[in-house]
Design brief:
single chain, mainly beta, Fumarylacetoacetate hydrolase, domain 2, 6 helices
Length: 270
């Protein structure tokens, strides 16, 4: 397994690196999109031999700045049930806008008009190849890696006026991503990829992608029949049951097997 990060180090500029347990190896300057998990980019990260930093010497940023961040709603049966919603018969597709993007350890700012939004732990796919009208095999091949996303959701705004998903999902800071993009995680095994959500050290969510209503390859095939997916696009695959509100002073951590922990403090209203 290889993990790629985007980081600010002791030197100038934002860099791409390979994350190991006790080190970050510099793989060169980051583009405006961050780490785009193409085959060539992974080769560069695996062979990185630049400066080596201790993790406490660098600041990890969102590993990618997606051209599109697409999300799937109600993709775990128990989550659909806890919201009182029917199990969808096709994927519920929406997006989070770029102003919502943030990275590890950045503060989630609660909006004044919806001061207790929910956390949502999610495993997200990062696209590695341009893909249009994919079959299931091509959909699997398009996945360049995985990361963690906290799909923070302002429910009052989301449910207003008949359903305002983009409004409720796209407040500033409402899409923490990271801490890395991981390659080599088996997302096809029967056990799936483990996902957990923690608030103030207490586990609130726990499931695996084996429990998805719509599988990973089905989602990519479905989306690419609507739009072209580009390298660096991110698809958040849905949240398990156990979502709940955040309060100022909370600390929320999303864990995805192979990716690690994405932790963010929760600040006051703005």
């Amino acid at each position: 397994m290889t993990r790629a990060v985007r980081f600010q180090g002791p030197g100038p500029g934002i860099r791409i690196g390979r994350l190991e347990d006790d080190a970050v190896w510099d793989a060169g300057p980051a583009s405006a999109v961050g780490f785009v998990p193409t085959a060539e980019a992974w080769q560069s990260v695996r062979g990185a031999s630049g400066a080596c930093f201790r993790p406490d010497e660098v600041t990890l940023l969102a590993p990618v700045v997606p051209p599109k961040l697409l999300c799937i709603g109600l993709n775990y049966r128990l989550h659909a049930e806890e919201t009182g919603s029917a199990i969808p018969t096709e994927p519920v597709l929406f997006c989070k806008l770029p102003n919502s993007y943030s990275g590890p350890d950045e503060t989630i700012v609660l909006p004044k008009d919806d001061a207790t939004p929910d956390y949502e732990a999610e495993m997200a796919l990062v696209i590695g190849t341009r893909t249009r009208r994919a079959d299931r095999a091509a959909a699997r091949a398009a996945i360049g890696g995985i990361t963690a996303v906290n799909d923070v959701s302002a429910r009052t705004a989301q449910r207003s006026s008949g359903g305002q998903f983009i409004r409720g999902k796209s407040y500033d800071t409402f899409a923490p991503l990271g801490p890395c993009i991981a390659a080599g995680v088996d997302h096809r095994g029967s056990a799936g990829i483990g996902i957990e959500g923690w608030v103030n050290g207490q586990r609130r969510q726990a499931s695996t992608t084996a429990q998805l209503v719509f599988s990973i390859d089905y989602l990519i095939a479905y989306i690419t029949n609507v739009m072209t997916l580009l390298p660096g696009d991110v698809v958040a695959t849905g949240t398990p049951s156990g979502v709940g509100p955040l309060q100022p002073g909370d600390e929320v951590t999303i864990t995805v097997a192979g990716v690690g922990e994405l932790t963010n403090p929760v600040g006051g209203t703005s």
